[in-house]
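Quick bug: Short chain dehydrogenase output formatted oddly.
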Amino acid sequence: MRQFGVRVALVEPSFTKTNLDLNAPQTVRKIPDYSEQFGVVSQAIQKNVQKAPDPDGVASAIVNAALGAWKMRRTPKGEASLLAKLHRFMPAGPVEKGLRKTFGLA
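Here's what came back:
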């Protein structure tokens, strides 16, 4: 896209304290074999959302990405920044193990 004068910026936020989940679509049919893990992961996500930063920080990062000096990758401060660095510099196995532990799937 650069040849057309278009630059792309990637903003990677982590959990953000919003009520988006209230309007999220729900599955009509549940798969019993997955229900236990689904419940564990859902609770972990809700817990992380409740202790997450307000959306103002993410909004600021998006505005800065659109209007500020060009930088290809932006991660608002916090867990997203740490996770992005882990993905770039660590082997996938330990990163996945940490994520599984965070979501109660270890």
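Actually, after a second look the formatting is fine. The mean pLDDT is 80. Closing.
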